[in-house]
């Protein structure tokens, strides 16, 4: 398929999303369902700015219903036939399908975002089938490899949207080195379109997008929209500790200062993640000392002591605890209102695409701005 056909198809799918989610403005910006950090205030602010905000999985499976209830309380006047103009994320390997079904039936979010099954496509099929039976909900699935994307598309319960998560992504992603969405998204698009030329599965790009430049890049690759996670950690509405947020704003050079490692999960006492996933985090003393050979038990003692002291010392270069964030962390320079982040990235992407059009294609450009 030629690039023109790909773009025509992605424009068709973009229009499909606009028809499904009546409040959105294009180009579409999505707020990722970051565990705990993406609470109701953040999700609602993103959607009210014309994006789609997702509530992340909570501390426990039952937290989701509480968060959706809070979102409904903020949104009530704007809710569209009872459907909340936000989505909700579920982490399958340790989630509760019965809690998810109850929360979705009761609160009717516009989309459910699935991630990280323990038992591959079989788990995804079960969640998809039961959620759709509970409520006619759009199913979004986040994948990090071509194989996962094809297995979902070929399954008995294909998703409505595939979020193509590149290796730069913050939080959990594929534990293997992986690839950025710059290669993964077009490869998935090629494979899907050649097998299913009329597919209605929209592709979204995630991983390292923090401003309009990333959004424009995603659209150029044929994405129907762009997902941002790390950028929204530095939003006024994020449910995040100040020390953590300060470190997201301070950290630079994600290529050198972020890694995927289970170390910080284990320091925080989180075990059980399926081996396919590992979280990207900003490094600090725990990581450096592990490299130097300090034993895990000693690292955990030092970690726990520092966390106990409070006051934000646990984060930063001299800190010891998890600062889950993406390789694009160096692009995040300030804490802003989520709505301003959405509108700013959208406007910047449009300006970039117009400017590129002007310098590369149009014979009518006056050249005034160049
Ligand atoms: C702190 C943090 C927590 C995350 N938690 C989840 C999660 O619970 N479920 C999920 O599907 N994705 C989660 N993600 C990954 C996002 O869905 C998304 O892929 C990622 O944020 C995109 O890359 P970016 O952070 O570079 O924007 C998380 C990301 C971050 C930064």
From TrEMBL:
<keyword id="KW-0560">Oxidoreductase</keyword>
<keyword id="KW-0288">FMN</keyword>
<keyword id="KW-0285">Flavoprotein</keyword>
<dbReference type="InterPro" id="IPR013785">
    <property type="entry name" value="Aldolase_TIM"/>
</dbReference>
<dbReference type="InterPro" id="IPR004136">
    <property type="entry name" value="NMO"/>
</dbReference>
<dbReference type="GO" id="GO:0018580">
    <property type="term" value="F:nitronate monooxygenase activity"/>
</dbReference>
<protein>
    <recommendedName>
        <fullName>Nitronate monooxygenase domain-containing protein</fullName>
    </recommendedName>
</protein>
<dbReference type="Pfam" id="PF03060">
    <property type="entry name" value="NMO"/>
</dbReference>
